[in-house]
Design brief:
- This protein is mainly alpha-helical and 67 residues long.
- The protein has a domain of 44 residues.
- 64% of the residues lie in helices and 0% in strands.
Length: 67
């Protein structure tokens, strides 16, 4: 059986590989985006509620007048 080959390494330990860290500006940017998405969702839900409410009100008024 032939001897197993060892994986090649470039001599750089994996501990020295640097990863980008989340800076305060990135965290703030993410928080602002989440806040904007939440406000957009709430605004859309309130507009939809108002639209449905006005439709139901007008239909109820039409039915009431028809009787």
């Amino acid at each position: 059986m032939p001897p197993k080959k060892k994986a090649k390494t470039d001599g750089t330990p994996s501990l020295l590989i640097r990863r980008p860290i989340a800076t305060n500006s990135r965290i703030r940017q993410d928080e602002i985006l989440k806040k904007d998405l939440y406000l957009s969702f709430v605004t859309n839900a309130l507009q939809l509620k108002l639209t449905v409410s006005s439709i139901v009100h007008s239909l109820f008024h039409e039915i009431k007048c028809a009787l």
